[in-house]
Design a protein that fits this description.
The structure holds 2 protein chains of 2 kinds. Chain A is built from 7 helices and no strands. By secondary structure, chain A is an all-alpha fold. In chain A, α4 packs antiparallel against α7 and α6 runs antiparallel to α7. Chain B has a two-stranded antiparallel sheet with strand order 1-2. The radius of gyration of chain B is 25 Å and the shape is globular. Classes of the chains: A mainly alpha, B mainly alpha. Chains A and B meet through α2 and α6 of A and α6, α7, α8 and α17 of B.
Chain lengths: 211, 692
C-alpha cells in the first residue's frame, strides 16, 4: 500500500465530514477565465501559424506583398490608442479596489471611448488597403494577414460590448459579487487582447515592413 | 465579399429547395420512415406516461452534472447506433461489389450504393463515431464521475456545462438533418483538401460536416474548461493532488488536451469556412493557398483528440481493475505521470498521419521517434494494470471482463501502431485498410472501456445493477464480432487493399470481405443481447438494488454517497483522509458513520437558456449551410441577446435549508447490495427527480 493510504490517522478522532466549507466563487470564475484565455491564445497561435506558413512571397501570388500592406507608423498609432484604453481600464480597477462605483464607471467609459478610437484607426487602415486592391480574396498571404487583423478587431468589438453591459450592471446592481468577478475577467480579457496586439505589431507590422 | 454560388438561391430559403430532399433514394426514404415512426412512438410514450413536465423540468432545463452526463451518454448511444448502421452499409457494399461481374442494384453499377453515396457514408461514419459517439460518451462519463470523485456538489460552472451539452446536441442534430435535407460531405471524416474547397464540392455536404464539427468543437472546448476548473477548484477538503482518484487524473490529462487542441480545430474549420464563404485562399490549390496547411492544422488537433478519448478510457480501466482485484492500484504515481506524459507527447506526433507527404528525412525521423515514445507511458500503464491484478483476488464480473478484454485490444492496436510509427513501414501501409484496422483496435479499446465503465457505474447513477447473464452474452458476441471483422481487415491491408473502396477490383479479396460481413452480423446479433440486458435489468431492478458500494470492494469517494446519487451528491461534504477514501473508511470501520449535523446546501437553479442557445446554434448553423442569411442574422442576434439578458439574471442559485437536507437524507434507505428488497424504488429512480 502506498504512503497516502497507510498514513496513520486515528480514524475515530478525525472528522469524517467537513463543516462550514465553501468555495471561493470569484477565484473559481477567474480560473475558468484564465483557462478560456489559454484556449483563445491557442486560436491566435493557430492563426499566427497560418500567417507564417502563408508568409512567403509566392503566397502573395503576384499581389501586394507585406511591405506594401504593413504600415508600422499607423500600427504604432493604433498601439497608443489601445494601450491608453488598457490604462484607463486599469484606473477603473484601482477605483474598484477603493470601492468607488463612480470611479469604476468613469474608468470603463474612458476605456470604451478610447477603444472606439482604436477601432476607427483600424477600420480606416483596412479600408485604405481594400481600396488599393489588397483584399483577403487576393492571395493566401493576404487571407492570413486580414484574418489576424479581423480576429483581433473582433476581440476589441466584444470588449467594447462587454464594457457597455458592465456600465449598465455597475449602475444598476452596484459592486455585487457577480459584477465584480465580471469586471475582473474583463480586465484579464482587455489585457489579453492588448498582449495579442503586441504580437501582431511585431510579426505583422514591424517584421512585415522589412521582409 | 460573399462568394458567388452557381445554382438556384432565394432570399427566403437560400439554397434549400424541394429537389434537395432525397425522396427518390429508397434507402433514405426507409430511414426517414424508421426515424419518423421512432419519433411518433417516443412522443406517444412520453404523452401516454404524462412525462412532458418531468422531461422539461427535470431534464431539458437541468444543470445537474449527473443528468447532463446521462444526456451526453444518450446522444452518444444514438449516434453510436447511426455510425454502426453506416458501418453495416460499408461492409455489405464492399462484399457485394467484388469483381467486374458483381451485380448492381438501386442505380448502382456494383453493389447497392453509388460512389457518391458511399463517400458520404464513410465520411459520416468517421465523423459520427469520433465526434458524436466516442466524445459525448466519454464527456458524459467524466461529467457524472469527476464531481462525485472529488466530493463536489456540481461542476464549477453548471450553466456552462448545460451550454456545452446543447451545443454538442445541436452538432449531432445537424449531422442527422443532413440525412433528410441535402447531403453530407463525401471528402472523408478528416477532410481531404482541396476536395472540400468550393470548386470541387459545391454542394452543402461539406458545409454540414464543417458546421457540425465546429459546434461540437466549441462545446468540447467549453466542457474542457469546465472540467479543469472543477478539478482544480472544487475538491473536497483533504483531497490533495496525491489523493485524487485515478480517473480524475485521467480526466485532467484528457481535458488539458481538449483545452489546448480543440481551439486549433475551431480555427482550422473557420479558415475552411472563410475559403468556402468569403473566397479567401488558405487551403486552395491556387493563388497562394497551401494544401498541407490544412493537414497540419487538422492533425495538430486530430492526433491529440485520439488521446483525449483514450485517456478517460484508461482512467476507467484503472478504476475497474483494482476493485475487482481487491487491491489498491499498483504504481499510482507512475499512472499519473503516464497520463500526463501521454497528454504531453500528444502534441508532438501529428505528422505521422502524412509521412508520405515527402518531408525531409529528419522531419519524418523526428515524428517517428516521438510516435514511438507514446509506447513508453502506455507500456507503464499496461504493466501497472498487470501488477495490480498480480496476486489479487480476481473477480470476473462484467466490468472486469470488459476492462481486461480492453487490454488485449490495447496490445494489438498498440503494437500495430508501433509498426505504423516507422516512416519506412508507413510508406507501405499508408491509406491501406491495415491502418483502418489498427485505429479501430484502439477505438474498440475505448468502446470496451466505456461498456466496462457503464456496467461499473450504472448502479451508482441509477440505483440498480445491470443484469449479468445477457450482459455476458453481449460481451462474448461483441468480442467474436470484433475478431471476425478486424482480423480479415488486417490481412487485407497486408494484401494491399486501400481505404474507402466502393468497388473492389480483385475477386481474391472477396472471401475476406465476406468474413467481415459475418462479423458485422455477429455485431448485430450482439446488439440484440444488449437490448435484452437493458430490458431485463430494468424489469428486475428490485432484485438488483445496489447499496452505497455496489461491488462491495470499491475504493474511491463516489461509492460513499447513496445509490442513486441524490441531486446534491453529498449531504455534507466529506473530509478526505486517504487516496482510496472509501477503502480507508472500511478498513478503519468508519464507513457507516453519518454526519452529526447537516448544513445548508447551495445549488444552481435550472434554466432553459442553454437549451435555447443550443436550438439557436442549430438554426445558425443550418442557415449557414443553406446560406439562408435572414436565419443566420436572426439566430446570431438572438444568441447575443440571450447571453446579455442572462447576465442580468441575479436569481441563479438557491439554498436548501439544513433541516430539509436532513429530512431528505432520512427518507433514503440504503439497502445492502444484491439483496432483494420488497417494493420498487420509490418513483423508479428518485435521485433523478428534484426535491424527492
Amino acid at each position: 500500500m502506498s504512503a497516502a493510504t497507510t498514513e496513520t490517522l486515528d480514524a475515530k478522532r478525525n472528522p469524517m465530514w467537513s463543516s462550514g466549507y465553501g468555495h471561493d466563487a470569484i477565484a473559481t470564475k477567474t480560473l475558468g477565465f484564465w483557462l478560456y484565455m489559454l484556449s483563445d491564445a491557442m486560436m491566435f497561435t493557430a492563426l499566427f501559424v497560418a500567417y507564417t506558413v502563408l508568409g512567403h512571397t509566392f503566397n502573395a501570388a503576384g499581389g501586394p506583398w507585406a511591405t506594401a500592406v504593413a504600415h508600422p507608423g499607423t500600427a504604432f498609432k493604433e498601439t497608443v490608442w489601445l494601450f491608453s484604453s488598457v490604462l484607463a481600464y486599469g484606473f477603473a480597477m484601482i477605483a474598484l479596489k477603493k470601492g468607488s462605483r463612480s470611479g469604476v464607471m468613469l474608468g470603463i467609459a474612458a476605456a470604451l471611448v478610447i477603444a472606439l478610437g482604436f477601432l476607427a484607426v483600424d477600420a480606416h487602415e483596412v479600408m485604405t488597403l481594400f481600396r488599393m486592391g489588397a483584399t483577403p480574396e487576393r492571395s493566401g498571404f493576404l487571407s492570413a494577414f486580414f484574418t489576424l487583423v479581423f480576429y483581433h478587431g473582433l476581440h476589441v468589438v466584444v470588449g467594447i460590448a462587454w464594457m457597455l453591459v458592465m456600465l449598465v450592471q455597475v449602475a444598476a446592481a452596484g459592486l455585487t459579487e457577480k459584477v465584480v468577478y465580471r469586471l475582473l475577467n474583463l480586465r484579464l480579457f482587455w489585457h489579453f487582447q492588448a498582449v495579442m496586439w503586441v504580437f501582431m505589431f511585431t510579426f505583422l507590422y514591424l517584421r512585415g515592413a522589412i521582409v | 465579399m460573399l462568394v458567388h454560388i452557381d445554382g438556384p438561391w432565394s432570399p427566403l430559403l437560400g439554397r434549400l429547395a424541394l429537389s434537395e430532399i432525397p425522396y427518390t433514394n429508397p434507402i433514405l426514404v426507409g430511414t426517414f420512415i424508421f426515424a419518423s415512426l421512432l419519433a411518433v412512438v417516443l412522443v406517444g410514450l412520453v404523452s401516454y406516461l404524462g412525462l412532458w413536465r418531468t422531461l422539461w423540468r427535470d431534464w431539458l432545463t437541468s444543470v445537474d452534472h449527473k443528468k447532463i452526463g446521462i444526456m451526453y451518454i444518450l446522444i452518444g448511444l444514438v449516434m453510436l447506433f447511426r455510425g454502426f448502421i453506416d458501418a453495416v452499409m460499408m461492409r455489405t457494399q464492399q462484399a457485394l461489389a467484388v469483381g467486374p461481374h458483381s451485380p448492381g442494384y438501386l442505380n448502382s453499377l456494383h453493389g447497392y450504393l453509388t460512389p457518391y453515396h458511399f463517400g458520404q457514408i464513410y465520411t459520416a461514419h468517421g465523423t459520427i463515431m469520433i465526434l458524436f459517439a466516442a466524445t459525448p460518451l466519454l464527456v458524459g462519463i467524466m461529467n457524472i464521475l469527476v464531481p462525485l470523485q472529488i466530493g463536489a456538489r456540481d461542476m464549477a460552472y453548471p450553466y456552462l456545462n448545460a451550454v456545452s451539452l446543447w451545443l454538442t446536441a445541436a452538432g449531432a442534430a445537424l449531422v442527422m438533418a443532413s440525412l433528410f435535407v441535402g447531403n453530407f460531405a463525401h471528402a472523408g471524416w478528416f477532410g481531404i483538401v482541396p476536395v472540400m474547397e468550393l470548386p470541387y464540392s459545391p454542394g452543402v455536404g461539406v458545409d454540414y460536416w464543417m458546421w457540425a464539427f465546429q459546434l461540437s468543437s466549441i462545446g468540447t472546448t467549453l466542457g474542457g474548461i469546465n472540467l479543469l476548473a472543477t478539478i482544480v477548484k472544487m475538491r473536497a477538503p483533504g483531497m490533495t493532488w496525491g489523493r485524487l482518484p485515478i480517473f480524475t487524473w485521467a480526466s485532467l490529462s484528457a481535458n488539458l488536451i481538449s483545452l489546448t487542441t480543440f481551439p486549433v480545430l475551431s480555427v482550422t474549420l473557420a479558415l475552411l469556412a472563410l475559403d468556402r464563404y468569403v473566397g479567401t485562399h488558405f487551403y486552395t490549390a491556387g493563388l497562394g493557398g497551401n494544401l498541407m496547411l490544412y493537414n497540419d492544422l487538422f492533425w495538430i488537433w486530430g492526433h491529440p483528440e485520439v488521446y483525449f478519448v483514450i485517456l478517460p478510457a484508461f482512467g476507467m480501466i484503472s478504476e475497474i481493475i483494482p476493485t475487482f482485484s481487491e487491491k489498491p492500484l499498483f504504481g499510482y504515481l507512475g499512472m499519473v505521470l503516464a497520463s500526463l506524459g501521454i497528454a504531453g507527447v500528444s502534441w508532438g506526433v501529428w505528422l505521422h498521419h502524412f509521412f508520405t507527404m515527402a518531408a525531409a528525412p529528419a522531419v519524418n525521423a523526428f515524428f517517428s521517434i516521438t510516435t514511438m515514445a507514446v509506447g513508453i507511458p502506455t507500456g507503464v500503464k499496461v504493466f501497472n494494470w498487470a501488477f495490480t491484478m498480480f496476486r489479487g483476488r480476481l473477480r470476473f464480473e462484467l466490468p472486469m471482463m470488459w476492462a481486461v478484454a480492453a487490454l488485449f485490444f490495447l496490445l494489438v492496436g498498440g503494437l500495430t501502431g508501433m509498426m505504423n510509427a516507422f516512416a519506412t513501414n508507413d510508406y507501405m501501409v499508408h491509406n491501406s485498410v491495415f491502418v483502418v484496422a489498427h485505429f479501430h483496435m484502439m477505438l474498440l479499446l475505448i468502446v470496451y472501456a466505456i461498456f466496462g465503465g457503464v456496467n461499473y457505474w450504472f448502479p451508482k447513477v441509477f440505483g440498480f445493477r445491470l443484469e449479468q447473464r445477457f450482459g455476458k452474452w453481449f460481451f462474448w458476441l461483441f468480442t467474436a464480432g470484433t475478431a471476425t471483422v478486424f482480423i480479415p481487415m488486417f490481412a487485407l491491408g497486408f494484401m494491399g487493399m486501400t481505404r474507402r473502396l466502393d468497388y473492389v477490383p480483385f475477386p481474391q479479396w472477396g472471401p475476406f470481405l465476406d468474413a467481415e460481413v459475418v462479423g458485422i452480423a455477429i455485431y448485430v446479433l450482439s446488439a440484440v443481447f444488449l437490448v435484452a440486458q437493458l430490458y431485463v435489468s430494468f424489469r428486475d431492478r428490485a432484485a438488483n438494488r445496489a447499496g452505497l458500494d455496489a461491488w462491495e470492494t470499491s475504493r474511491s469517494l463516489e461509492w460513499m454517497t447513496h445509490s442513486p446519487v441524490p441531486f446534491y451528491n453529498f449531504a455534507v461534504t466529506p473530509q478526505v483522509h486517504a487516496r482510496d477514501e472509501r477503502a480507508w473508511r472500511v478498513e478503519h470501520g468508519v464507513d457507516g458513520l453519518r454526519p452529526e449535523r447537516y448544513e445548508d446546501i447551495h445549488m444552481p437553479r435550472n434554466t432553459a437558456v442553454p437549451l435555447w442557445l443550443g436550438a439557436l446554434s442549430f438554426g445558425l448553423a443550418f442557415g449557414l449551410v443553406w446560406r439562408i442569411w435572414w436565419l443566420v442574422e436572426v439566430c446570431s442576434a438572438a444568441i447575443l441577446a440571450l447571453i446579455v439578458i442572462r447576465s442580468f439574471d441575479h436569481d441563479t442559485d438557491y439554498t436548501i435549508p439544513a433541516k430539509d437536507v436532513e429530512r431528505m437524507e432520512r427518507a433514503i434507505r440504503d439497502v445492502p447490495s444484491g439483496r432483494r428488497v420488497s417494493g420498487d424504488l420509490p418513483d423508479g429512480v428518485p435521485a433523478l427527480r428534484e426535491g424527492l
